[in-house]
Amino acid sequence: MNEEDLKKLDALHRAVDSMAASLSERHSERLQCKRGCYACCTDGLTVFDIEAERIRRGVQDALRGESASDEGCAFLDEHGGCRIYEFRPYVCKTQGLPLRWFDDSGEHRDICPLNRTSESLDELEAGECWTIGRAEDILRDLSDGTRVELRLLFEELS
Fold this sequence. Notes:
158 residues; alpha+beta; three-stranded mixed beta sheet; two-stranded antiparallel sheet; 11% strand
């Protein structure tokens, strides 16, 4: 893993943060996401190896001796807060937003059940949804393709 790729990852994360903040503002009345809500923070999530390295470097020894959460993501603290929020991976940055993606059968949209309202996702303009694909492609290009399970990463760091 080279430093240049980590700089590119940081730039991607800043861009994702900016776009996600804009969408969060647009959907502020809909989104129930806040500290302590961890419905999307499920166990078994994996991240690309380069994001795991970013977490390792960011956290360093801060989690030594800590216990993993038994409920959801291992990085949740006892209050449902994220212990790696500043270094959280891409997948966590877009949780809760209206999502849009394409496959062979066409366009699909979804959102966390806690954020559903009477406004149908199909009524939203394309730019009012987070479109899955481009950021994942960039992550894949920066990575060697290896996926790291977040629970195993926590165990490594604790």
